[in-house]
Design a protein that fits this description.
mainly alpha, 81% helix, disordered N terminus
Length: 415
């Protein structure tokens, strides 16, 4: 539904533009009345300038020129490595299509024909004198050849409806404009009405010379046509112009969309986005390669790690061996010293043992002697303790008895 409304609105807009162009064209280029009262008409001229024939020839030229320019333009866009060349070529193609469709939609077919001839001539001159030397260089030669061929076809079309004098006059007017504007190379908006001479005649149409190319804009080719029939003819011609423009408008719109996308792509922000996207894509590609090579790399790394481990182990083993050898040497010396020490200790131990044995034996002998002596002494003491008191008692009794016996003896008895 939205698309249908959009198409309807777009068709109405184009229809209004074409009708507006037709009204403006009639006001600008159709100043002669229907009664043919203009002093610039003649039967021969009217027969030659039939609007239907002129418009059919104009339509054919526009299609031919569009195809002639489009083909080398597309090749140049596809083959060039310079973005600025592709951008300019697309813009030039859009400008040509827009200008020629505007000429096809003109209410006065003679005015549209003159406008197309002026544009094609100026565009060829701009390409040849400015764009090829400054931008296109050798890449623009096919496009220049196509522009030259299109200009030749435009002048062939002019020769079918203009007299040789009018053709010469039109060429002179174009050359004068180029001399007056030597640095002007944007010519997409130039029309026959933009020439300075036309502006002078527009202020005073009566000053136009009979037979001049400007007089064609004031001719009513069908002066005796019934007003109702003339209106019907105008509507039929409007329908033809509308159909011609609408059929070719989608192609022009697609070119404009392409140009808008290219303009967006040329922005610095877009370049940074593209660069970031490219880097991200490259990183993703590298990551994929890493994953693809991971098994082989893992095997190689594992082998290298094992080899490195063995190398490290071998180095450690050698270091340990060296350390062990050094420690062994030191330990050998230590063991030798230890052996000597042990031998000395053993000898000392033997000496101590012998001394201890001797001492023990001496002690044992001394102990045995001491024990024997002690035993004897004890026995003697016991005997003495037993005998002495008895002997003392016996002695005491004996002495006592003697003393008692002496006291009881007569006097003079020897005691």
């Amino acid at each position: 539904m939205r698309r249908a409304w959009f198409r309807a609105i777009f068709s109405l807009a184009v229809f209004a533009a074409v009708v507006g162009g037709g009204v403006c064209g009639c006001a600008k280029n159709g100043r002669g009345g229907r009664d043919g009262s203009s002093p610039f008409t003649s039967d021969t001229t009217l027969a030659r300038l039939d609007p239907t024939v002129v418009r059919a020839e104009l339509f054919a030229f526009i299609d031919s020129y569009g195809a002639l320019i489009e083909q080398p333009s597309d090749r140049l866009i596809a083959n060039t490595s310079r973005r600025e060349v592709a951008t300019w070529t697309l813009r030039n193609k859009i400008t040509s299509g827009t200008v020629l469709l505007s000429d096809a939609a003109a209410a006065n077919p003679l005015g549209g024909m003159l406008d197309s001839i002026v544009y094609v001539s100026l565009d060829r001159a701009a390409i040849e004198e400015h764009w090829v030397p400054t931008l296109l260089h050798e890449e623009g030669k096919p496009l220049l050849d196509a522009a030259r061929q299109g200009e030749a076809e435009a002048w062939d079309m002019a020769g079918k409806f203009l007299t040789p004098g009018q053709v010469t006059e039109l060429r002179t007017l174009i050359d004068q404009w180029r001399k007056t504007h030597p640095d002007q190379y944007y010519v997409g908006q130039m029309r026959f009405a933009d020439l300075s001479t036309f502006r002078q005649y527009g202020l005073d149409p009566a000053s136009v010379k009979p037979g001049s190319v400007f007089s064609l804009l004031y001719i009513n080719p069908l002066p005796s046509l019934d007003p109702v029939a003339d209106e019907l003819r105008q509507y039929r011609m409007l329908t033809e112009r509308l159909a011609f423009v609408m059929v070719r408008m989608p192609t022009l719109l697609s070119w404009r969309v392409e140009a808008a996308l290219n303009l967006a792509a040329d922005l610095p922000q877009a370049d940074r986005v593209v660069a970031s996207t490219t880097q991200l894509s490259g990183a993703a590609d590298r990551l994929v390669d890493v994953f693809a090579k991971y098994p082989n790399d893992l095997t190689a790394e594992r082998k290298a790690a094992i080899e490195q481990w063995f190398v490290g182990m071998d180095a450690q083993r050698q270091a340990i061996q060296k350390e062990l050898d050094s420690q062994h040497s030191q330990l050998g010396a230590t063991l030798t010293e230890a052996r000597h020490t042990i031998a000395d200790a053993r000898a000392a131990a033997d000496s101590i043992t012998n001394s201890a044995n001797q001492t023990a034996q001496s002690l044992r002998r001394d102990s045995e002697q001491l024990v024997a002596l002690t035993t004897r002494s004890i026995i003697l003491l016991i005997v003495a303790a037993s005998v002495i008191p008895v002997a003392a008692m016996l002695l005491y009794r004996w002495l006592s008895r003697r003393m008692v016996a002496g006291n009881h003896s007569p006097p003079g008895t020897p005691r």
